[in-house]
Each structure stands twice: as C-alpha cells, then as structure tokens.
Records
---
Amino acid sequence: MTAQPEHAPTPPSAPGPATAAELLARLRTHPRASTWVPAFEQAWAAALEDSRHSYSLTRCIDLVRAWQARLAAAPAVQAFIASGRDDSGGIALDDIFGPRR
C-alpha cells in the first residue's frame, strides 16, 4: 500500500500562450484602462526579461493569474466602493498575492 491520498487536488493549469494578449485586450476595454494597461505592460516586460535570464515562465504565469484575479474582482470592488461602506479594515493586495517583484 502506498501513503498517497485517494483524491489529490489537480494543480491549476498554466495559462495558454495567447492568454496574456487576451488579458491585455480585456484590460484595454476596462474603465481603468488608462492606469491598468501601462501597469500591466510594464510588469509584463519585466516578467519577460526575467524569463529570458531564468529560463522559467513562473513569473509570467504568476503575473497573468494576478491580473486575471484583479480583473475578475473589479466589479465586486466597484460595487463595494459605490455602496459607501467603510473599507478601513481591508486587506492589502500584497498580503494576498505576495509582494510585487
């Protein structure tokens, strides 16, 4: 008998090659595009440069996942801000995703 669990969770698959381009296209149509597009492009360029030196796509994959999560959460965040609720007890995004590189 082995000591392996019966149901091992499947790790999330890596984004496809066109995912970053699709994400950028979605960012360009977002109301915050004027700030988000340059931020994504700058972070993407840094991640690509890092991948050239490290031969690892981990930073690119992490960046795409973080921006996908940010984009997915944007409507809920906007609704929260519009509701006028107190957000002084919030959690910094860096606490959730880790420090930005």
---
Amino acid sequence: MEKRYSEMTEYELKNEIAQLNEKAKKAEQMGMASEFAVYERKMIMAKAYLLNPDEYQPGETYEMVDELSRFLISYMNGRFAWGYRNGGSELEGVPISVLKHK
C-alpha cells in the first residue's frame, strides 16, 4: 500500500516528485496530455507537503506560480489555501505550492 504524502519524509517526497517528473516527461513525449496533467497535479500536491502552511496567512494576497493570477487567502485548511483568485467571487481551494512565497 502506498503512503500518503502526509506520511512521507522530506526525502521520500523529493524522490516521489522526481519519479512523477520522469513519468510526466515520458507522457508528454508520447503525446498523452491527460496522463501528463495527472502527473503534474500529483507533483503540485507532493510539493505542497514540503512547505510550511504556517507561512501563508489569511488576509494576504499571493502571486500564483503561473504569474498571471493573484490569490487572496480567506482561510487555510491543511496544505490548501481557500480564497479568491483575481478578486473573483467564487471561493476555491488551491495547494500552497501554487502560491509564490513572499
């Protein structure tokens, strides 16, 4: 049975990210876009577990890694920040790994 990311050590998480990165590259080379997207999302989640959620504060606005969006955090729930993208009105949750740390 596989471990959850929350149960992995930093070393295990980094190995998992490296393996997912290799799988993503292979999927991309083979033109398997949906499989590539799955590996990308898994990498984003694994990276969130390498970060400290206490460093992200509700009420603060963060630039997102896509550099096109900004995200206002309303509240934190584990490794997810819940809030609003680009001043929108729809509440959404994003892994903290997609937010640039200030």
---
Amino acid sequence: MRDGHQKGRGSVSNGTPRFESFVREDVCDNWPQDDEPEPSTKTVVFTERAKSILSTNASPDIPFEQSVNAYRGCEHGCVYCYARPSHAYLNLSPGLDFETKIYAKENAAEVLRATLEKTSYVPKLIALGTNTDPYQPIERRLSITASILKVLEDFNNPVAITTKSALVIRDIDVLARMAQKNLARVFLSVTTLDREIARTLEPRASTPTKRLQAIKALSEAGIPTGVMVAPVIPSLTDSDMEKILFASREAGARYAAYVLLRLPREVAGLFQEWLNTHHPLKANHVMSLVRQMRGGQDYDSDFRTRMRGTGVLAGLIEQRFEKACVKAGLNHERKPLSTDQFRRPVKISPQLQLF
C-alpha cells in the first residue's frame, strides 16, 4: 500500500507493524505508470466472535473500572488516536490499517448479556467509547452499539458514552429512558471548532457543528451531557478551548473535561507526519511545546500526569480550563450514576419455577 495523504484519511502512512519480522519499503522501479491516480484505500470490515467483552482497568487517572468496545480499529481516522498502537497486535499497521481494517464484534451484545447474568457479576458503570468510537460510521449499518445499549437497559446497568459522532442521537430514546433512572450519561468529544483543521485531523468524524447539535439534542431529551475537549494540541487547537466550552454550555452541556495530546508508541511518528504534511510551518513549534509538557519527550506514560502533562504550559492550560468552566457554569455537580437498580431479567421458560 502506498504512503502519502489520501482524502478522507487521517494517517499519512502505513508503516510495518512492530511485531512483523520483515520491513517492507516502497522502491521506484521506473515502470511506466498511467496518468490515472491510484485509488484511495477502501474500508474493509471483518467480523469476529468475541469470547469475552468486558475490559477492566485499575488506572488511577481513569474514572471507570470496566468498559466495552464493539470495534477494533476506527474509521474516524483521528491521527492522534492513542488506540492506534493496538492494531499492531493484529499484525496490522497503526497507520492506515487502523482506520481501514475494522474488526466488528458481531456477538458483543450476546456475550455481554451472558456476562451480566452471572451471579458473580458486580454491577458497575460500563463505559463505551474508551478505545475506539462506538458510533463510528459502520455502526450505522451494523448497530452493535445499539444492541449493547438494549442489554444494558434490560439489566438497568449504568452506562457512560464518549463519542465524536452525532450518530449517538439515533439511540436517543433508549438513552433518555435510562437517563430518567440516572443510568446514562454522554460526552461528545470536540477537538476544535475549525472545520478545516478537523477535516484532516479527524476526517470521518462528525463536523464540530454536528457534535454541538448532538449535545443540544441529547440535553433537550433530558440526558446528562458533557463535552470532552480532547485532545488539546498546543499552538494548533488549544486556542479553541474556551470557545468549545462556552458553545457546549449554550447547547446544554452540564459537564466538561479535557485531555492533553497523548502520543504513545507509533502515534508520535504518525502525528508528526501529519503535521509535516498539513501544517509544515508549525510542525517544529507544536512538537517543541508538546515536549515541554512531557518532560522533554514526545510522551510520558506516567499515570499521574499523562492526561494533563507537566510544566508551566500544562499548568496554564489547566488554569484556563478551570476558569472557563467556572465562567460557563460547567461542572457544578456530577451525580454518580446509579448501580442500585441493577436487576437480572427473569428468563421466560415453559417450566414452572419452584420458588
């Protein structure tokens, strides 16, 4: 597969997976070429049957203990996505492969139902959208996330959703019913209000305007809604932070959070390629600021600081965020979602129950 920017894709390249035994390089052999441009890489969706569906974590900087991911890979193509390196475990590139070779867990709802039915299961908040987006484009056709929500509603298990897609409003009815029982909350992730930057930074995600409209629709339906300003990219998107917070509050958001740009493993190289392609005059400056907030490195994975960074610049961003939230009236109160209403539906059986 050729390297180079393709319209509608975030990654500029498709490097060899880190566990591959051989490295492949493109070499020009001067063979005559037609004048027709090479076709863009198409999205291929593979279905897989999951054996388990709940992922757990004990990270002190993450506000949930368990999550469900319906997909591996994400067609949104956000070049900064911290989940990209996970595709290497499939022997696929974290570059273009991550956004063009998607794995859909077709039995996700079935496995989740079986998990919640176990008497050993302890009801806790389940997060959707923690690794790849639950409402990426193929969800419109496959509806795996919709089937997961149906299971969670059946069991009265609380759910928190984070997405960059306005497709979430398709499920507004079930989310509204759950919200009435204090079982649902939704965060829309908004990186920038600049549509031109968003078009290449996160090419197949909903436009910033559509995401704000989704916040409005969810809020009007009585669903507790927030905005995630993520990632904050210094000298590129950080100037939009206050605008995003005020626009989201006007749309009905109650909560807000932010995450500083994270560049683990292959993401650092992919992001720098993107910068050099789309913002070459800013590339060195952006990376210099990133390193100032990461102890001189492209990334620091320390749980205590990886979401916010360190240093003077990181501190200024945090102060700006907190002051803007106060002024906008965000984060006044965030009531925990309820786990007290959890129940296991009675199975319909032709045999009478003894008790």
---
Amino acid sequence: MRKSLLLSAAAIMTISSPINAQDADDVDALRAQVAELTAQLEALSARLDEVEDTSSAHAVPAPAPAVAAAPSVTADNATQISMGAAPEVESDDGFSFKPFGRLMLDAGWTALPDGLGLSDGFDAEIRRARLGVSGDIPGGFAYKMEVDFAGNEVTITDALIEYGAGDFDIMVGQFNNFQSMEELTSSRFTSFIERAAFTDAFGFTRRAGVAVEYGGDNLLVQGGIFADNFEDMPGSDRWSVDGRAAFFPEVGDTQLHFGGSLHYAEIGEGETVRYRQRPLVHFTSNRLINTGNLPATSEFGAGLEFAAINGPFHVAAEGYRQKLSGLPTMQNATFHGGFVEAGIFLTPGDSRGYSGGRFNRTRPANPVGEGGIGAVQLNVRYDYLELNDADAGIIGGTQNGFLASLIWTTTDHTRFQINYGKLDYSDAAIALPSGDRDYSADAIGMRAEFDF
C-alpha cells in the first residue's frame, strides 16, 4: 500500500506539470524522464522492503498488556500492584497496602410458643458489612484496621499493629483474645450462620490488649493481657489474661486439631456481667435464657477443642466452663457450654479448609463459572448451653440446640446457606402464662455472603 501510494503520487505530480505548452520533442523528453524516475522509485521501494524484513527478524516483540500477561503491574521499578480478590500494592522498601471486606445478608423466621408475648416470624438484617485495610511496614511490622457498618452504626472490629520476629509475633491493639477455636474461626468460614451458643453467651469478643504468639510447624501458643472493647472504653476497669495452645498434626490424610484455652478476668468495681443467648439466629432480639445482671468481681474460664478433617468429612467439638466469683451470695457460680458437630461435602473433591489452629476457607474444586456447581456441604450440630447454678441461686435456663446447615460455596469468595434449629429450653428466663418454663422454639436462618 505504501509503495503504491508513493509511486502514484510521484507519477501524478510529474504528469501534472504544464506540458500542453511544450512541443512534441519536449513531451517525449519528459516522458523519458518520468520513466527513469519511476524505475528509480521502484528500486528504492525494493531496498526499503529489504530493510524492513531485516528489522522485523531482529525486533523484540511488543509486550502484552500487563493485565493479560501477569497479575501485576510495576511502576517506576519500585511499586508493584497485584490483583487477586482485591488489589494489593507493594513497594520495594517494604510497604504494602491491601483492602478487604465482607457483606453478609441474613433473613429467616423464628417460631416461639404462644403466650410468651414476644415477637417472632420473619425478619432480616445486614449481619456484617465490613471494610478494612492491612499490610506491611518496613522493619518487620504489619498492620490491620477493620470497621463494621452493620446495624446503622460504625464500629471498630480490628485495629492492631503486629511485629514479627522469627516464629514469634507481638500484637498491640484490638483483636480477638484467645478463647475457643470456634470464636477464632472467621465468620466467613464457620459451618453455621452463628457460632456456638456459649461463645456469645460468655462474652467472647474483641478487646484491646497486647499479646504474644508463637507458631511452629504444627504448634500454636498464644497469650495476652486485655482491657475492654474500644466501644466500652474509657470508663471500664475490666482487664483479663488469656491464653490458648493448639497442636495440629497431620496423620496420613487426616488433619487433626487439639487445643485448649484459659481465661481470667477482673470485672471491675461496680460493674456486672450478664450471660444470655438468642435462639440460633442474630436477627431476633429475644433471649430465652438469661442470668440477668450479676455483680461478680471476677470470672475464670477453661475450654477444650478437638477437630479432624479427612477428605470431605470433618468433625469438631468444644467444651467450656465459666466460673463467676465474688457474688453477694458468697457462693461461686459455674456455667457450661459446648457443641459437637459433623459435616460432609456432597460434591467430589471438596474439603473443609484449615490453617494455623482454626478452620479456613473452602475452595471449591469445581466453582460456578468454571464448568462446575461449586461445593455443597451438609452439617449437623448439637449445641448445649447451661446457665443454671442452683447452689448460687442463679436460674438462667438451659438451651439444647439441634441444628442442621446446608452450605453452597459457589466460588472461593461467595457462598449461600440455610440453617434450621430446634431449640429445647428448660428453666427458661421467660415463662408461659401457665408458669411453665420448659418449652421449645424453632428457627430458620438464611445467608448470602461474599468477601474480598
């Protein structure tokens, strides 16, 4: 195309000269000149073709766009941006920045006995709507900050700085203190939409403190000193010491987990504690077992953990004992909670994730969008919570939960689930009109969620 245009332009320019005023000899001479010029242009074009062919043979192919070639972009040879579920920015001098978040939408029904005078039926809520950032700081430091926007308010969940030195990590800020594998497993990876009843009833939550953690190949030891949650500070005199150890060997194709935790807290002068629990789902405000406010001075808790994963199967069990001291009756009060569960994946190739002393993300072998249907998991659980101590004069009630969940994990970062719970109560905190405190309730919970 380029050669043809070049020759045509030269010819047109030459022929366009004013030749009508010339005689025949001049015209013949001009035609000869045009023929000679055309031959020269053709020779020059052929030479250009040889040069282009030689350059093409030794040319370096142009790089493909960064997104297509690799999941990273390098700017100024110092900053790298990688793309996974969310972008992560890393610099050569050790800084990194990564946003993360989750959204959990819950809906369902509760069915309570007639005569309790409590609302039930359908309800829904945004259970969690969290955004956060995490990353590294030069010198072996790391940071994490997360806030939750659910419930029409903004609350701080995690806010911490961490320093790593070999197998040891030192953490300062607000984070989960070390009670229960169930509590420390992220809500993104739990087998039911709510954790075991005792974890909520006994007040397991994030608190401000300083902690040290040792992590070996299959051993984890954690311990720290904690104050209260940021929401309750200042003004709270509560403080606690918490520790946990977990041993998680692999035996053949089976991942095992053995763990235990200890907790001691000074409640604070003039403060009280209250243990209570909802029937399975969070979107109801009804607590059918409840100790009421107890003016204790301290609490001591001890828990045991066990879990095993083999292919599509898993089992888990925990038990926890909480003792209150300093009650006006001069009698210590002791309460108990725990659960045992089993689960199986109905889709081939899928297994429950596990890492570092807690359950982790399930990654479907055949996710939706890649020719598969995702991972389908069925779980059953017996959940027990006892808030009675007759010797101390406390009758808060006992809850026996018979639970089942069906979880559809469509991709690594999206899942849907439905839970059913049959809750049997004895000595419930709220009585029927007849005075009877032994009855049952039903709950169905559904959740749609994603995280990045």
